[in-house]
Amino acid sequence: MTTAPRPAWSDDDIEAFRDLAATFFEKECAPNEQRWGEQQHVDRDIWRKAGDLGLLCPSIPTEYGGGGGTFAHEAVVAEEQVRRLAPSLGTSVHSTIVAHYINSYGTDEQKQRWLPRLSSGELVGAIAMTEPGTGSDLQNVKTKAIRDGDEYVIDGSKTFITNGLLAELIIVVAKTDPDNAASGISLVVVETEQARGFSRGRVLKKIGQHGQDTAELFFDGVRVPASNLIGTEEGQGFVQLMQQLPQERLIIGVVAAAAIEAALAETIAYTKQREAFGKPIFAFQNTKFTLADLATTAKIGRVFIDDCIAKHLRGELDIPTASMAKYWLTEQQCRVADECLQLFGGYGYMTEYPIATMFTDSRVQKIYGGTNEIMKEIISRFL
Ligand SMILES: Cc1cc2nc3c(=O)[nH]c(=O)nc-3n(C[C@H](O)[C@H](O)[C@H](O)COP(=O)(O)OP(=O)(O)OC[C@H]3O[C@@H](n4cnc5c(N)ncnc54)[C@H](O)[C@@H]3O)c2cc1C
Q1: Residues with CB under 6 A from ligand 1
Q2: Which of 39, 151, 172, 244 is 20–30 Å from 309 (CA)?
């Protein structure tokens, strides 16, 4: 288990909130991780517990039921989740992403309708962009939401959706004008309880993150009120996505930086107690040099991500820098997890050792939130 010095962007209130999150993940989540992994989802009531403690939607204004904090509160929840080895609860998608689309672009009525229930855990949130035929090329989504009187009729399918099994509020990326690319895209909310024609497919079997319910979703003539369009105007979805994706990428970077530190701490502790040839593994020059290299990476990653967080809190984090944080830190996370695992020998391949889970969980970080190739595309556009 790792602790880190207080970052410059934090303060006493945020650290008290960090302690709350740490205790929650350590006591309420970590002991259940193995079972959640086997059943491929967390228990539904853990969302309520997180909501009761104020750990959901911490940066949504209090008038809409949120915590009234900032991105710093989102960051400490993500960091403590990693440090307490409790990765399954999909809070980043729920709080840092889904709630923020509603908060940033929703009408007051929509905010009143949905945000308090997301904050309490009464609703679990998901965002459905990816389709079987379209991932990176988001402008090319085929799911349609066609206006019919006072309703939208949604047809299409989505895949790889985090919180897909348990979500009751799903932001669907759909074409309200299928003849147009980016300008035809809108974000439409589906509340699954009332949605006839909505169904969930398999909870997908993954190589890591086993306790997160990543699922397929199907929409077959699903009718939702026209007032479920996020905002007041059709065709704004792509712009809304582009504006919010930097925060999504930043939180992935926050997780990566914390995961690097956690893997390093686990490995230093292990190599100091495991012996070979009559001395600790740590004493071999190869081990010391590897760990010195990884500790340097961890330090650079920490300085970079703290700077990104501070910039985001000031409203100054630009699109390429957020993409750099996602790209570079997740590449390093995968490298660090791999090199640390090697220092565990065969034990590193055994799932009872956290380093094994850190290794398998890390891989997807280079893929979701926009692949790292797409991150490099974005960065290069600003050169
Ligand atoms: C565990 C998990 C959770 C996820 N959660 C969600 C979620 O909650 N909501 C959601 O909507 N999606 C989610 N996703 C989907 C994820 O965002 C996509 O998988 C990702 O965007 C890539 O899309 P794709 O899988 O269709 O790959 P593709 O777009 O088919 O890409 C395949 C390869 O081609 C490369 N490529 C594509 N275009 C270019 C280009 N222009 N230049 C260079 N290389 C390119 C990619 O980088 C990749 O290496 C999740 C995925 C996983 C695995």
Answers
A1: 93, 127-130, 135-136, 160-162, 206, 209, 214, 364, 367-368, 370-371, 373-374, 377
A2: 172
Start-to-end C-alpha separation, the chain: 39
Half-sphere exposure of 19 toward its Cβ, with a 13 Å CA cutoff?
6
- Residue 360 is inside which H or E element, if any? helix 354-362
| Average pLDDT of span 126-135 | 97
How far, in Å, CA of 261 to CA of 1, rounded? Answer: 10
Written as one letter, the residue type at 42 is V
CA-CA distances (angstroms) from residue 334 to 34, 246, 303? 22, 21, 19
- Atom number in ligand 1 closest to CA 137: 29
> Which entry of 79, 248, 261, 339 is annotated as an active-site residue?
248
Cβ atoms of residues 158 and 131 within 8 Å = yes
Query: Which atom of ligand 1 sits closest to the CA of residue 93?
Result: 8
Asked if 207 and 360 count as a contact pair (C-beta separation under 8 A), the reply is yes
The residue whose two tokens read 């993500």 is 78
Predicted local distance difference test score (pLDDT) of residue 4 = 72
pLDDT digits (tens, 9 = 90+) for 161-220: 999 999 999 999 999 999 999 999 999 999 999 899 999 999 999 999 999 999 999 999
CB 254 within 8 A of CB 309: yes
Phi, psi of 9 (to 5 degrees): -80, 0
The residues, ordered by sequence, that sit 6+ positions from 331 with a Cβ below 8 Å of its Cβ are 366, 372
